[in-house]
UniProtKB/TrEMBL annotation:
Domain Nucleoside phosphorylase: 4-212
EC number: 3.2.2.26
CDD domains linked to this entry: futalosine_nucleosidase_MqnB
Family in the record: Belongs to the PNP/UDP phosphorylase family. Futalosine hydrolase subfamily.
Protein's job: Catalyzes the hydrolysis of futalosine (FL) to dehypoxanthine futalosine (DHFL) and hypoxanthine, a step in the biosynthesis of menaquinone (MK, vitamin K2).
NCBIfam families per the UniProt record, alphabetical: fut_nucase (TIGR03664), PRK08236.1 (NF006087)
Catalytic activity: futalosine + H2O = dehypoxanthine futalosine + hypoxanthine
Pfam families: PNP_UDP_1 (PF01048)
Organism: Streptomyces ortus
UniProt KW keywords: Glycosidase, Hydrolase, Menaquinone biosynthesis
Record's protein name: Futalosine hydrolase
HAMAP family linked to this entry: MqnB
A GO MF label: hydrolase activity, acting on glycosyl bonds
PANTHER family according to UniProt: 5'-METHYLTHIOADENOSINE/S-ADENOSYLHOMOCYSTEINE NUCLEOSIDASE, FUTALOSINE HYDROLASE
């Protein structure tokens, strides 16, 4: 099982790496600086590559695509891609310190303003606004990690007001969290036909901006805890068994 985990920043990548006793070593490929966690042989060939791919959907898509292409060209493609990191939680569904696992990954601001309000690109006849992780894998991971399942929104601008938070909730009633990379990672994964997951540890409520109140340490610790439990599920998952 070959897994690519894309985070935005090195602190998030290192929080994922901290879940494992096996060391991570540099594994550069063109267009992406990967860290590879070396698991022992009894781990059924689990390979975990970690990528701090940059903040925002464009950087995330570009770096994830580079890693996916490089792996495909060497004949060792990834079986699953995970977008991971901290995120904002919609209240009261996703409190600070909780984990959110996406059952859909939806871009919330890719569209047009029209006289009738916001229109997603799909209504304009283009592309996609949502990617769906495999149901069975989401259920298993939510069960072992205790993560809440819901929609995770991708935004290019962090929400900074109660009005914007309410607007996003109105348009996406199932949204539990927002972050800035999931949809970019998912677009790259979809282009390669690889399943995608997104897991977010909530560092702050979505709403009026109060950067000083972000609980980044608490969220990074939750991310480490989640990956410690998630690895055995990934190790035993058979991507060819997808029934959903
Ligand atoms: O300053 C630090 O030590 C630090 C450590 C880890 C991560 C950061 C970031 O600022 C990461 C930015 C990243 O966080 C996501 N995020 C977090 N909260 C929100 C939110 O309310 N709305 C949207 N995105 C959020 C996002 O994915 C950014 O890439 C700093």
């Amino acid at each position: 099982m070959r897994v690519l985990v894309t985070t935005a920043v090195p602190a998030e990548r290192d929080a994922v790496a901290a879940a494992f006793t096996a060391p991570a070593s540099a594994h550069p490929v063109p267009g992406a600086a990967l860290s590879r966690v070396a698991f022992p042989a009894e781990s059924h060939g689990l390979v975990l590559d970690l990528l701090a791919g940059g903040v925002g959907p464009a950087a995330a898509a570009a770096s994830t695509a580079a890693a996916l292409t490089s792996a495909a060209l060497t004949g060792e493609p990834y079986d699953v891609v995970v977008s991971a990191g901290i995120g904002g939680g919609f209240q009261p569904g996703a409190p600070v310190g909780s984990l959110v696992l996406a059952d859909d990954i939806t871009v919330a601001d890719l569209g047009a303003e029209t006289p009738d309000g916001y229109a997603p690109v799909t209504e304009l006849g283009f592309g996609a606004v949502t990617h769906r992780p495999p149901d069975s894998l989401v259920r298993e991971i939510a069960a072992v990690t205790g993560a809440r399942q819901g929609s995770v929104l991708t935004v290019s601008t962090v929400t900074g007001s109660a009005a914007r938070a309410a607007e996003l909730r109105r348009r996406h009633p199932r949204a539990l969290a927002e972050a800035m990379e999931g949809f970019g990672v998912a677009e790259a994964a979809a282009a390669h036909g690889v399943p995608v997951l997104e897991i977010r540890a909530v560092s702050n409520p979505v709403g009026p901006r109060d950067r000083a109140a972000w609980r980044i340490g608490e969220a990074l610790a939750a991310l480490t805890g989640a990956f410690g439990k998630l690895a055995p599920v990934l190790e035993s998952w058979n991507p060819h068994d997808v029934t959903d």
